[in-house]
User: What shape does this take?
Amino acid sequence: MGFGLHHSCNISVKSRFETIIANGWVYAGDGKAPRKADIGISEGKIKAIGKLGNSCGKWVDATDRAVSPGFIDIHTHTDTNFYSCPFGDSRIYQGITTDIGGNCGSSPSLGADGKSIKDFYSELSELKTGINFQSYTGQGTLRNRVVGSNNVEAAPEQIARMKALLSAEMEAGSIGLSSGLEYTPGSYASKSEITELCKVVASYNGLFAIHLRNEDDYVEEALQEAIDIAKDSGVRLQISHLKAQNAANWHKAPNLLKMIEKAESDGIDIAFDRYPYIAFSTGLSTFIPLDFRQGTTNDILERLKNDKTAKKIGEYAESRFTKLGGAQNVIITSGKNEDNIQYTGKNLLECSEISGLDPWPFVRRLLIEERVNVSIVAFAMKEENVKLFLSHRLGMPASDGSLYSPEGPLSESMPHPRSYGTFPRFIGKYCRDEKLMDVSAAIHKCTGLPASRLNLKDRGLLIPNYYADIVVFNPDTLIDTATFSEPHQFPKGIEHVFVNGQHAIESGEGKNVFAGKVL
Ligand SMILES: [Zn+2]
Assistant: This one.
């Protein structure tokens, strides 16, 4: 069936709508079954839904297609990648109309350049992006700014200073605080320090997105810490990329859900997100123990070069390889030095063979040559747990990915395929094909549910007077195509994307339309 634009609008008289998306199966985003209807759009908003006739400037045939609110990715690292690709390629081509950045403790605001969230937002507004965006303030970034990069306790006046900065960020439209408590220097913050910061977030009804202090052997203790922080500060809690990592911890998944349900019944406003893949993506530096990651990059390099400290780091790294089920489960995904590009996309055993070095000596050399900045993906999670988390009432998909593009500077690394495929994979593979839940429930988890967590006003549902962030897709063919070896691939089945009423993707093709807003 053809799916082009049909110029069958009646434009002889003044049109009732700028655009009509006609005859599709409209999923409101509230989890209810779809209904066959037209959607009339004008001035960036949905004006009417029903049988609307043909008085419009543009008529888009959506017969046999699913019409859904644009997907909202509640956990991304898109941030400054907009500068390289303002349209938002890996995001918008999978039907995402809103990205939430500044996650895992690291935000573009309050970094070394001294920018506030207000500065960053106005830069994005000036740049003009293809999709909407809003950001958290990173607790690691904030601590680095005020306390520095070392493992020290924050003094009372430093805590007061962090609270004041955070308060200004909230005033300027930050969603809340994000943490990456497995990373330095955010990890140096105590529970009570984080609780203090969360009181500020709570006073603005913001959200605390916590990347837990531990996601494997101590994941239950780490989740309990998050729940305690929410209880003591009154903050609304979003557990980031919930997981029970490494085979020895897979059995903990049901208990993590029990703990979350218990917290909810104790009155905590809690939910979580999760990417629909069994591999995680992070820095190779996470194989260095936290204490050896203190200070500047040069400090870390010194420790790697020193045989004595490197031996200790190596013992830790090797124990991590074992817990991950072996070095073959870790894949190098970036390398900038010419000699190291050959390792991109290879697992550590393959790298060993090529380099003639055992995994740890290879990792040590790579970290030194790349100045600690190397990314990896590692296969460490269990498929059943991914499904368990995604199907839970309080769970929602989110990519934990970033903005990439098959062209230009953002095409050069080997990102985790989640940056391209999260939502089509969740709906197409997990829900349509594997019947994890029906498509209406799946769409709710991609739209209305994250919108409600984020207190997004007038978005995430298809109802009159809401912003016209809309995706039209083929429910029979929707699927991700990005893989770990070929990540730079757009999904199939996304046919039209509207952002604030503007037609940004038409019949699968991106237009020169930059209608995104900072929310
Ligand atoms: Zn994280």
Observations:
- The chain has two domains: 71-278+381-452, 282-379.
- The first strand starts at residue 17 and ends at 26.
- Residues 1-6 have pLDDT under 50 and may be disordered.
